[in-house]
Recover the amino acids of this structure.
């Protein structure tokens, strides 16, 4: 799963007249078709980015956030974890990351 962010210049992706105007970063490097399906993004008040998404390869609901945001973080990588792995879960994922620092995700269980 990747994240594309619009930049003024110096980005590493984009085609034609948009070449270099997008920065593309890998969030989850798990291989296989469908990792990142039904992705939901929440941009919190402090610019922290959170994702909930479906991993079709393993049938799991996954959660990701950028480790370099907020006080006390020294990681500059995306942190990915499995939230639920029973049966086939994660379709129609939705996430909310309110100021209270609780992460809320909704999803469909097949």
């Amino acid at each position: 799963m990747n994240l594309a962010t619009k930049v003024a210049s110096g980005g590493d992706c984009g085609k034609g007249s948009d070449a270099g105007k997008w920065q593309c970063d890998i969030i989850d490097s798990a291989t296989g078709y469908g990792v990142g399906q039904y992705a939901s993004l929440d941009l919190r008040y402090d610019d922290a980015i959170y994702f909930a998404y479906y991993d079709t390869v393993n049938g799991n609901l996954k959660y990701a956030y950028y480790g370099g945001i907020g006080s006390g973080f020294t990681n500059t990588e995306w942190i990915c974890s499995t939230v639920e792995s029973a049966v086939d879960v994660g379709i129609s994922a939705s996430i909310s990351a309110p100021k209270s620092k609780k992460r809320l995700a909704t999803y469909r269980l097949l």
Remarks:
- The chain is about 0% helix and 50% strand.
- The chain has a mean pLDDT of 79.
- The first strand starts at residue 2 and ends at 6.
- Residues 35 and 107 are 15 Å apart (CA to CA).
